[in-house]
Amino acid sequence: MATRSTIMDTNSFRAEHASALDAETRRLTDKRSRVLGESYRLFYRNPVHLVKGQGQYLWDADGNKYLDAYNNVASIGHCHPAVIDAVHQQMQQLNTHTRYLHETILDYSERLLATAPAEVDRAMYMCTGSEANDLAIRMARSYSGGTGIIVSQEAYHGTSDLTSGCSPALGTGQGLASTTRLVPAPDDYRHQNGDLGDWFAAQIQRQIDDMQAHGIKFAGFLADSIFSSDGVMPNPIGFLKKAVDVVHANGGVFIADEVQPGFARTGDAFWGFARHGIVPDIITTGKPMGNGIPVSGLLAKSAVMASFSDHIPYFNTFGGNPVAMAAAQAVLDVIEQEQLQAHSQKMGQLLLAELQALMAKHDCIGDVRGAGLFIGFELVSDPVLKTPDKQLALDLIEELRNQHRVLTSVAGPYGNVLKLRPPLAFQAQDIDWLVGALDQALSTLKK
Pfam families of this UniProt entry (predicted)? Predict the structure, then answer.
């Protein structure tokens, strides 16, 4: 029986949808099937053929304009001119690896480290978040002397052998490592038993104890502080600190995976973990760093990094190359110059308020929660029992795509949470488009 991945298959084109496609879309999907491996997935029952992007908008091959409410790869906006110019200028000068001296990587590292807690004072670079998390796991194991890694129930941390073994969101077809342990997601919507921070810290301790009982030494806890794959769980602010205290009390390392909540996304802070008043031992990041140019990074406390780097050389051919660093520099420039952290906080508050107002009109909206421009929109069939409604969520994203030209997708263990995560270029007028589309689409689907 075919297995399903909660992040890859929940909103996915499949062969049974092919007969409903127009001729040109069918030609392209058939060609993909013929020339690309079967592991690839397309969004939507009717896939979108995109040809252009600008800011928070995208255009398809027929010239239709879409609102991108999902993309944190082009975090500061599709085709941002500052990034295009920086990459173009550097490509005309030099692009090589980090075994030659080059000032850009040094200047960028000083700027990036200045955004982190003072204790985090070393940087390394790769191309993808998977590579960054892979190295972080190796580093955590080197520092702690253990092998056991704890992640949340629906976590996604990458596609390498190490990271896929810590990524339950990849589905039952991808086995977890024997040294991986899972904790339930910190679901404040459904949690009824006292303080969420105390409860979550107890879940961490329980898994550390289980590791010990099975002869596995604890190495660390790897978490995305907004728990995006678990269904977007950012609150209450500060709840994560008690869990990190438990990690440290047991000799482990806390790895903050900032690929999704980092780079001003939450509005409250530059880094997602900073909302919780914690200092990670290792910070990993990727997608939003280069606004579409492949670049990722790992920041760490010097003692933690030294446990690995003093013994094992590390080299990544494309990691930290001058073009990638130029793109990354430009992203930091834009975040500062356009005040995107404050913008994300303001737009996020406005959007959250409008979405929460919809709850009075549609009882199928069980919860709306978020931080900055990262919002979870949860759909239920019974608001009292909080019964997840996956089918409505899937129908809703199709209705948004087909009738309202709004692009987003779903998250969470039940596939019933819309992950609303637009580029930071998102503006007040886009709130009307997005909220109006959700209102009309739900009204249509619930008739």
Answer: Aminotran_3 (PF00202)
